[in-house]
Amino acid sequence: MAPTKKVPQVPETVLKRRKQRADARTKAAQHKVVTAAKNKEKKTQYFKRAEKYVQEYRNAQKEGLRLKREAEAKGDFYVPAEHKVAFVVRIRGINQLHPKPRKALQILRLRQINNGVFVKLNKATLPLLRIIEPYVAWGYPNNKTIHDLLYKRGYAKVDGNRVPITDNTIVEQSLDSGPTQEI
Fold first, then answer.
1. CA 57 to CA 67: how far, in whole Å?
2. pLDDT interval class at 10 (50, 70, 90)
């Protein structure tokens, strides 16, 4: 009779743990492949959307230039469209403040120094801005300033929690599929 090799015995818990780790590794690999495909698709969508925005911006610039030249040829003046949104920041405190500007600041949610809000410019908000002009600084934002501001100071409510906006995934998850899908 040939001597038999003794098979090392491994506890059942160790075997279970090995199996669980192997399953977890395969699931993670599958998940990685799926998310990579989704991210690639999102990237192409972002790129296409950005191209579309660039094209719209160029067309708007060309149209403005065309209208300006047309007006000059006729001897008229071309007045470009006014801004629709302003960003307002409070720069002065509450000491010796008249009740009217105090109420206007409350209406615009500018209760503390360095609070900032985006304000839609219309017939109702322009008089408010004139009333509070000595207490605020305001101007017209562009895409870059909005982008920088949201990434530096922006927060979103996700499931009742205040979460800082660090990337587009937070925006996508909270807005689902709306018109704004990226910053």
1. 15
2. confident
